[in-house]
Request: fold
Amino acid sequence: MALPTGPTSSWLQNSGFPSRLFETGSNDYELYEEDDEFVLSVEMPGFDPEEIDVSWDEGVLNIAAEHEDETRGQRKTYHRRFRFPKNVEDDEIEAQYNNGILEVRLPVLSGATTRGKQIEVQA
Reply:
């Protein structure tokens, strides 16, 4: 019996065996902190602003969206949760959708500190 000589993906392609055993999470967002606020940018092409639901609940930002293309008989959904390490001024959160990018700005409460404790790194 000869061993396959092609790349792994080609000889496993028709076996029903996944070519990648460990899926890496999709990198469809960017999160950073600047000027006392968190800025979250999420790539969500193909949605209309009214199809996107953004909600805040005690330190967790929830983003959900659903788009139904009746002409193609396809449904597209998106759901992701983000937990924030600092207290956010929830009345001041703003979300804007432009060119397939959802940008959410979450102002940090003044004097808010990161929850948790410092962990010492051992050598």
